[in-house]
Amino acid sequence: MSLLILTWIFITGACIGSFINVVILRLQSSEHSFLTKRSYCYNCRKTLLWRDMVPILSWFYLKGRCRYCHHRFSYRYSLIELSVGILALLCMDSPQIFIFCTMLLAIGLIDLDTWMIPLQLPAIITATGLLFGYRESLDLFYARLIGCLVGFAFFALFLLASTWILRRLKRLGPDEHSMGWGDPILIAAIGANLGWFWLPWMVLLASLQGIILYCLFSFKRAPQADDDWVPPQMSLPFGPFLALASVEICIFNML
Q1: Where are the alpha helices (DSSP H) in 115-232?
Q2: What are the boundaries of each domain within the chain?
């Protein structure tokens, strides 16, 4: 494949990564106008120019700051654009895997920031996973459907059982749960793309990576306020690790 085509695929992926940035920001702020409302600075509310939104390059051109108010933008925006551009190259032969991985990237980062999984995104990847599986073969479709149903059922039961046990042990309050319902829904969406066979390996890999990261960084977390619900001290959401492990399995299968 020529360098020109590869460059075009990377640029297209980076542009999609820019849109993923918009999705992440607006879902976190409960905005849903992804296509009808132009991008703007969340600090001064000024509408951004086209040259302020060139993937990867604009962040360096503006030195990571807003053109108008000079508010600093996170380097994470450019990293997301770069990551999705690389994903586009890796998944050029599989649109379904590309959609799956980019949606997981958005889900993982939103969950990391807010401890919430917006249900629109798992719904999208569940539908695309089952649809592409059906188009390829009935065997693949059934494997993914089983993965979706079994994944949700198993982790829903785990959520209910662990919540009951922790409440009995007085580790949780009467209105608290051991994990959110977003995690079983996310696992169901992952099962609809990876199939039932990879689900145990994905959960194991996610758990191991979560434990390692917790051991490395948990003691550096800032104290939390007590006015509203906040994550428990020394804790991490599970969703980002489920997303990361799923992307790693997809890349492993493509290599």
Answers
A1: 120-136, 138-168, 182-194, 199-217
A2: 1-90, 93-255
For 251, counting Cβ atoms within 10 Å of its Cβ (0-12 exposed, 13-18 middle, 19+ buried), the class is middle
* Interatomic CA distance for residues 112 and 254, integer angstroms: 27
Q: How far is CA 138 from the centre of its chain?
A: 28
Return the structure tokens found at 188: 């169901």
pLDDT at 109 over 90: yes
pLDDT at 226: 44
Tokens of 13: 């992926």
Side chain identity at 14, as an amino acid letter?
A: A
Within 8 A by CB and 6+ apart from 252, the residues are none
DSSP at 107 = H
**The pair of three-digit structure tokens given for residue 183, joined into one six-digit string:** 């995690």
Q: Binning pLDDT at 50, 70 and 90, where does residue 49 land?
A: confident
Amino acid at 172: L
Q: Could you give the C-alpha distances from 20 to 12, 125, 165, 176, 238, in angstroms and in order? A: 12, 14, 38, 31, 21
Give residue-wise pLDDT tens across range 120-170: 999 999 999 999 999 999 999 999 999 999 999 999 999 999 899 988 888
pLDDT digits (tens, 9 = 90+) for 192-225: 999 999 999 999 999 999 988 878 765 444 444 4
Q: Which of 90, 73, 108, 15 is nearest to 255 (CA)?
A: 90
Whole-number Å distance between alpha carbons of 239 and 188: 12
Helix (H) or strand (E) holding 86: helix 76-90
The answer to whether 108 touches 116, Cβ cutoff 8 Å, is no
Among residues 118, 252, 117, 141, which one has the least CA distance to residue 193?
141
Beta bridge partners of 72: 65
